[in-house]
Amino acid sequence: MLRLGLGRVHGGVSDMSDDKQPPTLSKFDEELRQARARHDKEQGAGKPGLAIESGAGAGYRVGVELFAGMLFGGGLGWFLDRQLGTRPWLLVGLFLLGSAAGLLNSYRAIKRAERESASATKARQSETGTKKE
Amino acid sequence: MAAGGESPVHQFEVFNLIPIKFGKVDLSFTNSSLWMVIAVAAIVLVMTLGANRRALIPGRLQSLGELGYDFIANLVRENVGSEGKKYFPFIFTLFIFILFCNMLGMIPYSFSVTGQIIVTLALALTVFIGVTIIGIAKNGIGFLRLFAPSGTPVFVLPLLIPIEIISYFVRPVSLSVRLFLNMMVGHTMLQVFAGFVILMGFAGIGPLIFIVVFIGFEFFVAVLQAYIFAILSCLYLHDALHPHH
What we know:
By secondary structure, chain A is mainly alpha-helical.
C-alpha cells in the first residue's frame, strides 16, 4: 500500500503538468468530488484493509493479537481475583475467554489480510489496464 | 544506545531531569518527556519550514510534508471513507508523532520513547476511548450491535457476546504491545550484538556486518510500525462509524 500511495502521488503530479489548460478551481473541485464519489462506490465506501501486512507481517500481527488476548484476559482475571478474593476462578475463566477473543481477533486479521491481498492484485490489474488506454 | 559494558536494557531507563511534585502525584520532567518534546519540536520545525515557502514545485522539506499529508489522507479515505475526513488531523498527528519518536530513537545515545509500554499504552488508550465515544455518539445504542454480529444463532450469543466484548477491549492492548515490542526488541538486539562486536575481538566483524544490516531493517520497522498504528486506528474508526460486521 505504501508503494501504491506514492505511485498515486506521482501520477497526480504528472497528470497536472500534462494538462495544457488548467481548469478553474471550482470546476476542478467538482470533478474531484465526482471522482471521489465514484471511487467510494467502486471500493465499497472505505472497506478496511491491510495491504502491507502480507507474509511475515500478517504472521506477526496474528501472533500479537493472540498474545494480547491472553495477556488481557489473564491480567484482568488476576486483578479481579485479587480485588474480590475469588482466586483462582476468575483468572481461569477470563484467561480462557481472553484466549478465545485473541483467536477471534487473529482470525479476523487473517481474513482482512486475505481480502486485502485479493483486492490489491485486482487493483494492480485494473491499474495496468487503465494505463494502456 | 549506550556503550558496551552496561546492561542491554539500560537504554530504556527513565530518570528525572527536573523533579516536579504535586502532593503525591509525580509529574517530573524525565528524559522520556524531553525526547517527546524534541519530537514535537522537530515535527513543528519540519512542517512549518516546509510549508513556509508554499512553492508550487515543492522543495525537499515541502515535499516531505506533502507526501506525508497525501499518504495519510489516502489512508483515511480508503479505510474510513469520506466521512472519515473529519478525523484526518487526529490520525495524521498520531502517525507523525510515532514516526518521529521512532526515528529519533534510532539516533545513537538518544532515548526511544515508543520503547516504553506506558507511552504506547497511553497512545492506544487515547485512540480506544476516542473511537468508543465517537461510535456511541454516532450510533447511540446501535453501537452495541458491534458485539452481536447479525445472523448469529441465539443459543451461541451468551458465549459469543463476552468473547466479542473482550476482543473489543483487547484492541488497545494489542495496539500498544505491538509498537512497544517492536521498538524494544529491536533496540535490545542492537545493543546485544554491539556487545558481541567488542567481546569477539577480530571475529567481531561478523556481528558488525549484522548490525549494519539490522539498522537498515530497524529504520524500516520504525516507519512500518507508525503506519500500522495509523491504519489500525483507521480500522477501529471505521468499525465505530459502521458497527455492522
